[in-house]
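Q: Please design a sequence for this.
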C-alpha cells in the first residue's frame, strides 16, 4: 500500500465520480491490514471496509497547501 504526498496542490475537484466512496484514508497499519472503520462501533469491535479510498494519506500533512476541496455529483461518496 502506497501513500501519496502532494505538497504543491492547492485545489482538488472530484466531480461526477460515482465509483468513489471514500476520498481520504489514513488508517494504515504497519502490517498491511485492511482499512478498518471504528466509528459508531462498540469498543473493541471493527468492521472491514471493502472500498479503497481515492488517496491513502499519512498524518504528516499530505496536502499542506490544499485550500479548496470541491465535491460535486458523487452519488456513492460516503466518507471524506
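A: Design:
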Amino acid at each position: 500500500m502506497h501513500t501519496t504526498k502532494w505538497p504543491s496542490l492547492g485545489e482538488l475537484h472530484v466531480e461526477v465520480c460515482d465509483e468513489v466512496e471514500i476520498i481520504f484514508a489514513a488508517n494504515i497499519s504497519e502490517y498491511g491490514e485492511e482499512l478498518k472503520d471504528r466509528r459508531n462501533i462498540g469498543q473493541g469491535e471493527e468492521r472491514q471496509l471493502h472500498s479503497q479510498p481515492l488517496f491513502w494519506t499519512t498524518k504528516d500533512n499530505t496536502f499542506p497547501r490544499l485550500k479548496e476541496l470541491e465535491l460535486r455529483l458523487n452519488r456513492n461518496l460516503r466518507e471524506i
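Q: Thanks. Anything notable?
A: Strands lie at 11-15, 24-25, 36-37, 47-48, 55-56, 68-72. The two ends are 19 Å apart (CA to CA).
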